[in-house]
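Exercise: predict the fold of this chain.
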Amino acid sequence: MQTKFDKVSSTLGHLQVEISEADYKPSVEKKIREYAKTAQVKGFRPGHVPIPYIKNLYGKSILVDEVIRVASQAVNDQIKEQNLNVVGEPKPKEDSYNIDWHARKDFKFDYEIGFASDFTVDLEKIPAIIQYDIEPSEEQVNNSIEDLKKRFGVDKEPEVSEEGDLIFGKLSQESTEFFFQSGIPTDKVKADAKAQFIGVKSGDKLKFDIQSIFETVKELGFATGKSDEEAGQLEGEFEFEVERISRVEPSELNQEFFDKVLGKDKAKDEKEFTEQVKSIIKENYSRESEFLFDFDVEKALLESVSIELPEEFLKAYLLEVNEGKATEEDLEREFPAILRGIKLDFIRSQVARDNEVKVEYSDVLEEVKSEIRGYFGGQGGFEGMEEFIDNMAKKQLEGNKDNTRKYLDRAFGRKVLGFIKEKVKKDTRPVSVEKFNEIASESYKN
């Protein structure tokens, strides 16, 4: 087999693959022998079908499969050898597969390959990025204290449910033998379905159409232990048997509450508590600042790292793979965001390779757990909640490659971004919440 790769430009290449009979014949003959051992052909005992007969029945299809497999492997090998950041898929020339498979023994295939131009990522050369230190207002401090009163409230198991409670029980469907030990937060239930979850007690059995309860398949997935796609396919009447009700009642402003929030004797009166809560709120607001900082880091990466992409090649590829799902107008509208995403992916991958940044299973699991915690909101104070979330997260990943890949990609992006943020220079500036909101709104527009 011979391959020849020519760079047509900084983002396009031409690859020619020449395959001789010696490259595919051994594997074709092996496949034919395997077929002969297992083929069920009328008039012959299993395992005794003559080789010539198998060749006559399946020879052409086996030949085509093996030749294309050898060609595809050659393309992949060349991509690795040339160290190409491929965009889309290698595109065969129109007449490459217009072949007389009976007459030919040697084959020649031509491919057009699109890829990113050569680039380097030097984090030291990126200009300092502003990180805002947000100062909270008095109203925001008071609102946060109310929130803390709920978060550090008293966990109770009332006999009868009210809105805001978290209801645990057995979710099942007799016709499909579905069963899941579920938890349903009443504040996540659709408004028109909420009434049936209010006023229930342990032992009550509720019946409902499974698609009528939650606003999104994501929430349904958490309640059923399914992936988004699997949850969307659930249908019919389900039964939910109530086992336990969890409710968090707000705490009073007293020493016991101060100690719960801050630690033993960290605040001795409401004034001291308020001052320390203000610091906590400031730290919490740093998440919004961090989100903008992340955005600005990615923006700086794109501005500092020059990457060309084969735009026309990419457009043609996207239209082909999304045939019937997206128009040229759709593509033109979304194309800037697509280019941005591809470039960022290449930059992240390069940073990871250069600095040996790797994602562990624990990183992926934590990504799922973080999403589940958000789903349950403030209902995280009762004993055993973390174990419940951990088991649910593992269930989300178990035996679902697509789901695992989604969270793996998120964990990878988060870990690489974390590494980059440690390396870039920062310019910290104080700012009010109102001013920060103006700055953030303007930044996200551009």
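Check your answer against the key: Residues 214 and 220 are 6 Å apart (CA to CA).
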